């Protein structure tokens, strides 16, 4: 029997005997495999056989016709570590490392810890990667296998290596959202060091307190203390019904609570979901709206009491539904400002902005009450103030956003625009309550409801028509539909309780809808290109310009009725003066706030419009954003381009066939 056959069967004594008889130890078979190849691959051949062959001068790096060396064979077949060691000690090398790396990848997929340990001990590169530049650690993190991750990290796997989709194992681990307990993969990375000796997660990041907590936990404590000291519930009979904005009917719970809840839904659901159009910023849109809304209600209660005291009124903070409604209105102004800045500021910056804005907003609101102007739905007090405060802020902060205009994540996807429409529909349905809740009697509330509904129908229909007119190809644009359809509610805010013709109400809404779409298609690009004014949600188009329409409309409506009680109660000169006052407060307040916030660290250029700046984001969602693969930008996607060419070719063939049939 030949040497190769005896080596494959593990007959060590007979192999040694042949070697002593000067048998050719390096004679190959038809596959160019030597006795050492088969001894290393055979599961029955012993370490002694391998030692005997090497002692007889077997070539440890001979390559068979499949490109394998004896060391390759030993590792592929997972022979005992002593065989691998003796081959390496005698100069053995790998020639099929890619195959061994593939085995390592497969073992990570199948969670075979023993195989992984064996391959790494044998010398397979722990940081090898596949065609997507994904390493074994990428795979282990994605499959949530703690033991495999531990083995790889013990063998100096680099958790910072970036794959083709822009993800590292460390970033994927940190973005995984555990619903109940701390994620074990995250905890694992906190325990290990990078190959360069630095910790993956600095101890201060693990145990430190965020700036938001440091600043706003004391602020919340202060608000609680002030409400404890000065706050009191409204008691029937104790309210001065002659005070500005107070009337007996407001405290009838059967009337008030339903409309208050409508307004509540608008602030916390409508505004939140309206801003979910950004494909990577849904958590920030809904979550931060929730936080800001609750914070603004508390802060407004305190500030209103403070400013009433400054204005000469009693420094008591009345806690009742009216206080909550006015708090919702104040939160609405902050949400409008947030729409300008969303995706470009951190939660810390936005909380600071909200705090400063509430000071200017409340002062302007108190002035409106003292001047006794008509603005039942807040065209000026809420929408105009919030819009121009935010736009001024954006101008002041524009130098801190070097790539905010061109950031690739300033975009939507199909489902994010669908979610945003939830906010639009909620706002559209509940806006009549928003405009009517402060009506002084049933007649005024009924007028406000009917005028607002008619105005909203006008803006809805005209927004669709204008969108089809201004957009290329006569198609509807979701940006227009999500926003301009609501412009009628904004424009009707000041004059909602004015007795006008129903057709006039529709025309006001139609004009606002048209102006809003015109703003999205023409004005916003101009402001961005010429002024550097970046407005993420297009707040100027939905709140800014329509609020000016509302302010001018109520002046015209009052001027057209010189003998009416409304004209006598709300002089035109006061309406015009408050219009100017609101713009001044908004612009000056926005400018001062912008200068203060410039000193607070914002997101870096790679973090614009991404929840990951402030939120734990489930890493499983990341590949489906499509920004790294090119699906979003069809022009950069070769597959999409090829498909487009095939479709054009098919269309051309069909055309030629039709022409041929016509000719026959």
Structure keywords:
664 residues, Serine Threonine Protein Phosphatase 5, Tetratricopeptide repeat, Ammonium transporter fold, 3 domains, two-stranded parallel sheet, elongated
* Largest β-sheet summary: 2 strands, parallel
CATH class of the largest domain: Mainly Alpha
**Number of H/I helices:** 28
Order of helices and strands: HHHHHHHHHHHHHHEHHEHHHHHHHHHHHH
- CATH-level-2 architecture of the largest domain: Orthogonal Bundle
Q: Give start-end ranges of low-pLDDT stretches.
A: 203-207, 241-247, 622-643
What is the CATH homologous superfamily assignment of the largest domain? Ammonium transporter AmtB like domains
Which structural category fits the helices and strands? Answer: mainly alpha
The largest sheet has its strands arranged as 1-2
Distance between the termini: 80 Å
Average predicted local confidence, pLDDT: 85
Strand content: under 5%
Helix percentage = 55-70%
Number of strands: 2
Return Rg in Å: 36 Å
CATH topology label of the largest domain: Ammonium transporter fold
The total tally of domains equals 3
Write down the overall geometry: elongated
Q: Can you walk through the features of this model?
A:
The protein has 664 residues and is mostly helical. It folds into three domains: 3-89, Ankyrin repeat-containing domain (Serine Threonine Protein Phosphatase 5, Tetratricopeptide repeat, Alpha Horseshoe), CATH 1.25.40; 97-206, Serine Threonine Protein Phosphatase 5, Tetratricopeptide repeat, CATH 1.25.40.20; 227-234 and 253-601, Orthogonal Bundle (Ammonium transporter fold), CATH 1.10.3430. The chain has 28 helices and two strands. It has helices at residues 3-9, 12-20, 35-41, 47-55, 70-76, 81-89, 97-109, 113-122, 136-142, 146-154, 169-175, 184-191, 203-207, 211-230, 253-274, 282-310, 321-341, 347-371, 379-397, 414-436, 442-470, 478-483, 487-491, 502-531, 539-559, 565-569, 572-597, 638-663, and strands at 231-233, 317-319. The protein has a two-stranded parallel ribbon. α9 (136-142) runs antiparallel to α10 (146-154). The longest helix is centred in the C-terminal third of the chain and has 30 residues, at 502-531. The termini are far apart. 44% of the residues are buried.
């Amino acid at each position: 029997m030949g040497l190769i056959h005896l080596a494959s069967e593990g007959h060590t004594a007979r192999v040694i005997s042949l070697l002593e008889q000067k048998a050719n130890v390096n004679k190959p078979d038809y596959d160019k495999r030597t006795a050492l190849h088969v001894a290393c691959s055979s599961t029955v051949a012993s370490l002694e056989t391998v030692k005997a062959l090497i002692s007889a001068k077997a070539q440890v790096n001979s390559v068979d016709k499949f490109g394998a060396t004896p060391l390759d064979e030993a590792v592929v077949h997972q022979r005992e570590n002593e065989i691998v060691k003796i081959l390496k000690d005698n100069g053995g090398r790998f020639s099929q490392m890619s195959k061994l790396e593939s085995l390592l990848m497969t073992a990570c997929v199948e969670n075979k810890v023993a195989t992984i340990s064996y391959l790494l001990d044998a010398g397979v590169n722990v940081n090898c990667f596949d065609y997507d530049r994904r390493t074994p650690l990428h795979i282990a993190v994605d499959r949530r296998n703690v033991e495999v991750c531990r083995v790889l990290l013990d063998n100096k796997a680099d958790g910072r290596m970036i794959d083709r989709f822009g993800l590292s194992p460390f970033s994927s681990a940190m973005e995984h959202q555990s619903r109940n307990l701390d994620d074990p993969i995250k905890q694992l990375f906190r325990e290990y060091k990078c190959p360069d000796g630095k910790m993956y997660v600095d101890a201060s990041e693990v145990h430190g307190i965020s700036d938001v907590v440091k600043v706003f936990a004391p602020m919340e404590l202060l608000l609680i203390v002030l409400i404890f000291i000065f706050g009191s519930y409204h008691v029937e009979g104790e309210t001065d019904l002659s005070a500005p904005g107070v009337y007996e009917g407001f405290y009838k719970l059967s009337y008030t609570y339903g409309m208050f809840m409508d307004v509540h839904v608008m602030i916390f659901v409508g505004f939140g979901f309206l801003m979910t159009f950004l494909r990577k910023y849904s958590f920030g849109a809904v979550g931060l709206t929730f936080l800001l809304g609750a914070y603004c209600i508390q802060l407004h209660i305190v500030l209103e009491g403070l400013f009433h005291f400054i204005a000469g009124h009693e420094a008591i903070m009345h806690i009742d539904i009216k206080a909550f409604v006015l708090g919702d209105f104040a939160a609405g102004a902050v949400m409008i400002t947030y729409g300008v800045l969303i995706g470009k500021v951190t939660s810390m910056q936005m909380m600071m902005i909200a705090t400063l804005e509430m000071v200017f907003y409340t002062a302007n609101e108190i002035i409106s009450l003292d001047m006794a102007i008509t603005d039942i739905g807040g065209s000026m007090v809420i929408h105009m103030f919030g819009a121009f405060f935010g736009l001024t802020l954006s101008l002041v902060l524009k130098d801190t956003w070097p790539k905010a205009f061109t950031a690739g994540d300033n975009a939507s996807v199909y489902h994010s625009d669908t979610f945003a429409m939830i906010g639009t529909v909620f706002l559209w349905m509940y806006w009549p309550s928003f405009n009517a809740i402060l009506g002084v009697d049933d007649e005024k509330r009924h007028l406000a409801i009917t005028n607002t509904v008619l105005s909203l129908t006008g803006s809805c229909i005209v927004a669709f028509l204008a969108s089809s007119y201004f957009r290329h190809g006569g198609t509807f644009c979701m940006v227009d539909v999500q926003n301009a359809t609501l412009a009628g509610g904004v424009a009707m805010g000041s004059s909602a309780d004015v007795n006008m013709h129903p057709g006039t109400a529709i025309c006001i809404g139609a004009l606002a809808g048209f102006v809003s779409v015109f703003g999205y298609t023409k004005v916003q690009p101009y402001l961005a290109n010429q002024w550097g004014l970046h407005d993420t949600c297009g707040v100027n188009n939905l709140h800014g310009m329509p609020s000016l329409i509302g302010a001018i409309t109520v002046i015209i409506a009052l001027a057209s009725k010189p003998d009416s009680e409304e004209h006598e109660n709300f002089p035109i000169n006061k309406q015009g003066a408050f219009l100017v006052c609101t713009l001044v407060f908004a612009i000056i307040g926005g400018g001062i706030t912008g200068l203060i916030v410039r000193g607070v660290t914002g997101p870096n250029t790679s973090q614009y419009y991404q929840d990951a700046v402030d939120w734990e984001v489930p890493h499983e969602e990341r590949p489906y954003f499509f920004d790294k693969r090119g699906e979003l930008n069809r022009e950069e996607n070769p597959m999409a381009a090829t498909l487009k060419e095939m479709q054009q070719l098919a269309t051309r063939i069909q055309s030629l066939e039709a022409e041929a049939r016509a000719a026959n």
